[in-house]
Amino acid sequence: MNYKIDVQDLPPVNKKGSENNAMSFLICQSETEAFERFKKLSQNLLKIDSWNVNAGKNPTEFFVYKDGKENQDLSLLVKENDLVKIKIPAPKNKLGNGFDWVIVHKIQSIESVDMKAFLLQMKPHSCPENSNGNTAHFYTEDASSTFILAKKNKTIQFSIHGRNEIPNTKNVGFLNSCRNLFVGGGGIFGGSKLQWQDFTEEFIKN
Fold first, then answer.
1. Full-prediction pTM beyond 0.90?
2. What is the pLDDT of residues 62-85, one digit of tens each?
3. How high is the pLDDT of residue 113?
4. 104-120: per-residue pLDDT in tens?
5. Which neighbouring-strand residues pair with 18?
6. Which CATH number fits domain 18-205: 1.10.1760, 3.40.50, 3.30.530, 1.10.860?
7. pLDDT tens across 33-48, in order?
8. I need a surface site. Which of 12, 57, 103, 138 has the fewest CB within 10 A?
9. Which range has highest mean pLDDT (17-26, 61-70, 194-203)?
10. Radius of gyration over alpha carbons of the chain, in Å?
């Protein structure tokens, strides 16, 4: 992948399973414009409820879960340890009451002499509405998805990195095991690579 800004040392190392990457960039008219866009997009990255991830007529939807219920404030900025449930265009996840669940594992601002970066990382998690504590996601808890917004001079880059992606097939039941094998084969978050490439392009433009 032809990165304009080298952020390849920021996602976790892929030790097992598959890895996937999607990336888009935008060159602004000035460094001032780039800085303002970077600041705005950093805020948008934390508004997970407002993400627009399409897969034809079947979008992938994200719902922040706080205080034992689905969040209703679309302007909410997520924090570390917030839970997010995901509705994907696939058979429902029985362990997650119809959803796949992740936790906001890390939020980090990074700054060097010539680069700024903002990182959001999520990992599979159990469903708080299910008492068995098993990972309610099509990947095992070793997987991660890292979203990185970066700025260097007049260039803005947005990339998504899936790491250690292994379908979750143990202790989930036969039907869920089949479902997770099918969904997990799609790469990042179980969506098609094209879907997530489209998301990076739309996100950075808007």
1. yes
2. 999 987 778 777 788 999 999 999
3. 86
4. 999 999 999 889 999 99
5. 165
6. 3.30.530
7. 999 999 999 999 999 9
8. 57
9. 17-26
10. 17
- Contacts for 200 with CB less than 8 Å, ≥ 6 apart: 22, 23, 24, 158, 159, 160
What are the extents of the domains in the chain?
18-205
Strands 61-66 and 116-124: unpaired
User: Rounded to an integer, what distance in angstroms lies between the CA atom of residue 106 and that of residue 122?
Assistant: 7
Instruction: Give the up-direction half-sphere exposure of residue 134: CA atoms within 13 A in the CB hemisphere.
Output: 18
Q: Which residue has the tokens 């303002």?
A: 36
Angle at which helices 31-45 and 193-205 cross, to 10°: 130
